[in-house]
Amino acid sequence: MGAKLKVAGWISLGALAGAMATMQFTATARSSLSPLPLEELQQLAAVFGMIKSDYVEPVDEKKLINDAISGMVSGLDPHSQFFDKKSFKEFREGTTGRFVGVGIEIGMEDGLVKIVSPIEGSPAFRAGLKSGDLISKIDDVYVKGLGLDQAVKKMRGEPNTKVALTIYRKSENRSFPITITREEIKVQSVRAKMIEPGYAWVRVTQFQDQTVEDFAKKLEDLYKQDPNLKGLVLDLRNDPGGLLEGAVAVSSAFLPKDADVVSTNGQIAESKATFKANPEFYARRGADPLRRLPAALKNVPMIVLVNEGSASASEIVAGALQDQHRATVMGAQTFGKGSVQTVRQLSADTALKITTARYYTPSGRSIQAKGIVPDVMVDETAEGNVFAALRTREADLEKHLVNGPELKDDAREKQREEERKKLEDEYAKTKEAPKPLPEFGSAEDFPLAQAINQLKGKPVLVSKTAVERKAEVKAE
C-alpha cells in the first residue's frame, strides 16, 4: 500500500461520520411558509419526463425520485439526509444500539481488523475471542486493503447466518479459523471501572436509546464498589453524539435540579426550547432513570475528557458542565457540531433527517464550527499529538452551517497538509506505521492519567503546542 493510502487509512480511524443530536418530533405535514415555486416545479417534472423518455436506457421511476430528494437534501448541510429503506434501517440500528452481527468493538492495526473488545454475552464473547486479536480474513475475503466500514458490513448480516473468521492471536503467535453464528447485538455505549481506590472512570461512546439507563447502572455499581468517591472522569473522547435527551440526562446526573443544560433555536416553534436538569426533559418512559443515583454524585470532583472526535451530544454535555462550573474540561478542542437534527418519518421505510435548530450552551455560546475549548489542553500521548491535526472537524465539512461570517482557515489547511506529508515521508522511509494510540481507559492512556493527576491536585503535563481554534471573521 502506498504511503498516501496508508496515511489515509490511519486518518479514517479518527474520522467522524454522521455525528448528530436528534430530536424526535411527530412527523406531520406543515403548511408552506410561502407559495410553491410553480415554474421550478414544472421544470422538475419536465426533467423527470425527459429522462423517462429520452435517456439511453430505462430508469426506475422510484430511484429517480429518491435521487432527486437526496440531491435536494444533501445541498443543505452535511447532516441533513434522506433515508431510503436501507439507510433508514442502518440509522435505526445506530440509535437503538442494536444490530445483527458477531458482537465486537473493532479498530484497525497493520491493515487488519483489531478486536478492541468483544461485547459481553455476544457470539464473539462466547467463542472466546479476546481484546487484541486480529482478524485477517472474513469468509473468503482477506481484510488487508479493506476499509473499516467494508469489514463491518461483511461481518454483519441476517440473524442465524454464519460468518467464518481467521484470527491471529499475537500473544500465542498463531492463527486459527472460527465460525460464528450472527445474532442481534446490543451495543454497550457505556463503560466504567475504578482506576484506583477513590477514582472512577466512566466512558460514553455514543448517546443511544439505552445509554441513560446503562449510564445510571454503571454509576450505581461504582458507588457500590466505593461509596466515598474522591473523583470521577467522564470520558467523551471520540463520542460522535446521538440522542439529545441522552445528553440532557447525563448532564443532569451531575447538575442541580432545574439548572440549564442546553437551549435550541430554529425556524419552527418546536425548535425553540430550553432543556433543564429535570426528568421532564429526558425521562421517556415515565420513571426517572437517574432516581437511584446517590446525592454525592452532584458534588464529586469531575474531569470531562474530550478530543477532536467529541461531537454534538457529547459537546452539549461538556459545554453544560463547563458553563455551570461543575467540571474541568480537559483534552483537545472538540469537533464543533452545534446543530440539531429532527427525524421525520415519510413512510414505513423512509424518513428525512433535517437540521432544525442550532443549540447553545447555558451561557449562550454557539459552538457551531468551533467546538468546546478545554479548560486544560492535553496531548493525546506523552510524545505529543500524532493524528490530531489530521482529523476532520465540522468547519472542514462542505456546506457546514456558519457561525457568523467565516473565512477558510488556510493556516489549518496548511498544517494538515504538512502533518500528512510528514507521516507519509516517515512511512516511506521506515515502512512502519505510527504506533497506534493506546486503548481509552488503559494503563497507557496518557490523557486519563493527566485527568487523575488533576483530580489529585498533582502536576499535569499541559500541551505545549495546542492552541485554541478561533472563528475567523471577514474584515468589514
TrEMBL record:
The source organism is Roseateles agri
Per the similarity annotation, which family is this?
Answer: Belongs to the peptidase S41A family.
Task: List all Basic and acidic residues biased stretches.
Answer: 401-434
Q: Do the record's keywords include Hydrolase? A: yes
One protein family per Pfam: Peptidase_S41
The secretion signal range is 1-17
Q: Note the Gene3D superfamilies from the entry.
A: 2-enoyl-CoA Hydratase, Chain A, domain 1, 2.30.42.10, 3.30.750.44
Q: Which InterPro entries match?
A: ClpP/crotonase-like_dom_sf, CtpA/B_N, PDZ, PDZ_6, PDZ_sf, Peptidase_S41A, Tail-specific_protease
Q: Where is the PDZ domain?
A: 88-156
Q: Which UniProt keywords apply?
A: Hydrolase, Protease, Serine protease, Signal
Q: Is tRNA-binding given among the entry's keywords?
A: no
Q: Can you tell which superkingdom this protein's organism belongs to? A: Bacteria
Provide the taxonomic classification.
Answer: Bacteria, Pseudomonadati, Pseudomonadota, Betaproteobacteria, Burkholderiales
Q: Entry's PROSITE patterns?
A: PDZ
**Which protein are we looking at?**
S41 family peptidase
